[in-house]
Each structure stands twice: as structure tokens, then as C-alpha cells.
Amino acid sequence: MSTKQINIIKIGGNVIDNPDTLAQFLTDFAQVKGLKILVHGGGKLATKMAEGLHIPQQMIDGKRITDAETLKIATMVYAGYINKNMVAQLQKSGCNAIGLSGADGNAIQTVKRPTEPIDFGFVGDMTEKSINTEFIEILLNNALVPVFCAITHDANGQLLNTNADTIAQSLAVSLSEKYDVNLIYSFEKKGVLINLEDDNSFIPEINYDYFLELKEKGIINKGMLPKLQNAFTAIEKGVRNVFIIKEDAILSLLNKNSYEGTRITNGTT
Amino acid sequence: MSTKQINIIKIGGNVIDNPDTLAQFLTDFAQVKGLKILVHGGGKLATKMAEGLHIPQQMIDGKRITDAETLKIATMVYAGYINKNMVAQLQKSGCNAIGLSGADGNAIQTVKRPTEPIDFGFVGDMTEKSINTEFIEILLNNALVPVFCAITHDANGQLLNTNADTIAQSLAVSLSEKYDVNLIYSFEKKGVLINLEDDNSFIPEINYDYFLELKEKGIINKGMLPKLQNAFTAIEKGVRNVFIIKEDAILSLLNKNSYEGTRITNGTT
């Protein structure tokens, strides 16, 4: 008996900020065959909303602090506006999407990050038990397509802001116990780039040793580091395939097995 | 074989505006036995958000016009902030809630209201086919508790603002084909009042003839008229019981069959 396959696709914030690109991505996503899950980040709307409402955004080391007002806006924008509009567009394309935060069906339960050394505020970190696979399987078994935003909960009434890349990785790892999982990080670039200015400088395959080498040389930019770390963790923990590709490449990759982009391998150089 | 019972409870906006009252209501709701669905309105947060963002609110005959910016805020506040915080609080109380807009799982498909005689903007009206009972039954059969906000979709990619009282009524009517349905409109008053200033002037039972009489005499206030019309429609179309009660009375009513408030009857005077 072959294991069932599932595609878990994370879409980046820069794609969400461009309505035409997002619409095309969602049309493509609707056509991806088989079981699938979408995870989305935030984009710039939350920052714009905060500015409009004159809520100051505190940053430490380039990371936003999620104070109570910022969490409120994140919940409105991610779980409300972005998530529901994506679901409505997917429904239009015949994809039976269901939008979820981690509180819904207790899908993703996280732990508030410790306040030392830096208090990041209402940020939830994933644990090995965060993902409620039983609930997700109920949806998948009924031909529903989960669409997760990056808001989770602590099961004690508190919503928490959580990194969307990490949610996608945890979903992939947890579901890999029962499924053959493809984890796809899709965003506005063609893959992991050697030269950020040249979209064609993507690395077709990257293993952990090569990653460490590039990291040491300072070739991989700061935003890509945690994404790649998530990718290698996923491979280590049983996810079948991990790709980092442009948002317009998911259909070629998943339905035609042909693409340009970066594949994560766990082989040695 | 006796038909399964389900309680559909709509909670009004004034309750949502008071965090302590809302928290107590949700604690009570979590303890309601058996199958249940929660439907919630909006409250004043959307208006406050619109003011904060300097988005003018257009009103005609006391009704808000849902232009594109107003719909955006309604989606953020109703489907995002209010819905997800309610779900998180219910999860804390051991109630396996799942927050939904009408787009999720294509749960509620509405039709954009005609622009004549008045263009109310992005408002969706319910039809007899609006409710996707098959989807809702999947959730109920898996011990999930649907929590609906008042945002629906047209299945063509457009989200629409929809009256929460009417959503509750349509859910009740559609589910009454398979279930014994109790529909409960819970809000900040003890029931349908003869004298709005006196909370103890509630009418214990009201039938359609009495309703028409009170309406003719101008005793029933404007806000109550559509709620009562929804209530009588529900009874006519097969809903077993309809109550209009204070938000702190749901546990006595549903678990102890004892309450103060208004019961809708379809008998003649």
C-alpha cells in the first residue's frame, strides 16, 4: 500500500501584497491535484493598518514586537481580511477551502515565548505537540482544503502571533507520520539566490553542508536563513521533499514535476 | 427513533462590546449540552475602527452602507478579531469551537442585494439554498462547534456583509429538516419588552397576532421588528422553539428548562 501524498504550500507576504500575483497564485493552487494545505504570512497590510491607527511598531533586531494592539491588528488582518479573501477566491476557483487560525478546532496550540532575553510580546512558539493532526485529517478526509493564517493560541484563551514558515514546517513534519509530504516555500524569488539582484542565480539543489558554507561566506541573506533552517529540519524529521520556489512555479512542480527553483536535499556534498 | 436536538444561539453586538459579559456568556455557552452553533453579530468595534482610520460611514434610514472599505473593516473585525478571540475563549472552556465565515467550506452562499431602490453596497441576502448543511453536519458529527460571524460570500470571490439574525434563522430552518432545532436570540434585554425602559416588562409568550397588534400600536421598537420577523419565519418553517432572552439566561433555558424571557409561539390569540 502506498502512502497518500500531501502538498503543504506556504505563500510569502510579498506575494500577498500584490493582488494580481496573489489571484494568479490562488488560481494555480486551486488546480494542484490531491491533498493540500495552504499556509500564508501577513504582508504589509498589518503595518499599514497600524500606521493608519497611529499604533507605534516596536522593533528589536529587525523583528517586530507583538504588543497587545499589534496582536489585535495581526488577528484582524491575517485571520480576517487576508484569510477570508483568499478562501473566497479559492471557492470561486472550485477549491473547497476552509480558513483557519490555530484556535479553530484547536488546530495549532503554541507556547508564549519566554520574555528573556528579549520580550517579543504575544508570540507563540511551536512545540512537538502543537499540531492537531486528528482535526486536520477530519478536514482532509472530507475533501476540505485547510488555509492557515499565522495566528495560533495557547489553549488558555490567548491568541499568539506565530511564524508562518515554522507553522508550515511543523504541519509538514507532523503529517509526515501518515503521509508522503511535499513542503513548498513559495515566494517572490526563483529560489535561494547566490546574488540577490539576479533572480537567475538560484541554487538548484542545496544540502546542509553547502548551506553552512554559504552561510559562513555571508552569501545567504538574513531573511532566508530561518526559512532554510526550517527546510532542513523538515527533511531531517521525515518530510519527503522540500522546495523553495517562485509563486508562479507551483503548478509545474506539483502537476508536471518540472520547475526552476531550489530543492533541499539532505545528502552530503 | 427520536430526532437529534441542536441549539442555535445568536449573540447580539451589545454583549460583544462588554468583555466581562461576553466572557461569562462564552463560559455559559461552553456548558450548553449537546449539539450547538453560535452566531455572532458585530458590535461597535468596526465603527470605532472606521473612525480611527477616517473612513466615513454612510447611513441610509439608519442602516449602514457597506462600501468596499467598510466591508474590509467588517471582515477584519467580525471574521478576524471577534471570531478568533471568541473561539480561543471557548477552547479555553473546553468547547471545541471552529470559527467560520460563510466562505469557509462554502458554508453560507448569499446573493448581493439589488442596488435598487437603495444601494446598500456589499450586502449579501440569504436564499433558501444558502446554507451548506452537508458541510455543517461534517463538523457537528465530529464534535466541533461552529461559530459563525456575519460575513458570507457569493461563490464568485466576493465577501458580503450579512445580517446575523437572518443567518441564525436560516441555519435553524435548514437544519430543522434533520434536527429538532432550538433557536435562541440572546441579547442585553430580558426579552421583547412592552416598555423599553423596564427590563421586567418582557412578554413571556408572543404569537403572530399579538405581534401584529403590538406592531400596530407602535409598542415594539424598530430594532426588534426584524428579529421578531425572523423568529416567526423560523417557527413557520419548522424550527421547534424560538426564544428571545437575555445573554445570561441561556444555561437555565437549555440545561434546566427554566428562564425569564420571551418565547415565540405560532398559536393564535
Automatic annotation (TrEMBL), chains A, B:
GO terms for biological process: L-arginine biosynthetic process via ornithine. It holds the Pfam family AA_kinase. Coiled coil: none annotated. Signal peptide: none annotated. It catalyses: N-acetyl-L-glutamate + ATP = N-acetyl-L-glutamyl 5-phosphate + ADP. Residues 6-245 form the Aspartate/glutamate/uridylate kinase domain. The record marks 10, 227 as: Transition state stabilizer. Its EC number is 2.7.2.8. Substrate binds at residues 42-43, 64, 161. Pathway: Amino-acid biosynthesis; L-arginine biosynthesis; N(2)-acetyl-L-ornithine from L-glutamate: step 2/4. It is found in: Cytoplasm. It is an enzyme of class 2 (transferase). Gene3D superfamilies: Acetylglutamate kinase-like (3.40.1160.10). GO terms for cellular component: cytoplasm. One of its GO terms (molecular function) is ATP binding. Keywords: Amino-acid biosynthesis, Arginine biosynthesis, ATP-binding, Cytoplasm, Kinase, Nucleotide-binding, Transferase. Catalyzes the ATP-dependent phosphorylation of N-acetyl-L-glutamate. Belongs to the acetylglutamate kinase family. ArgB subfamily. This is Acetylglutamate kinase. It comes from Flavobacterium sediminis. The lineage of its organism: Bacteria, Pseudomonadati, Bacteroidota, Flavobacteriia, Flavobacteriales.
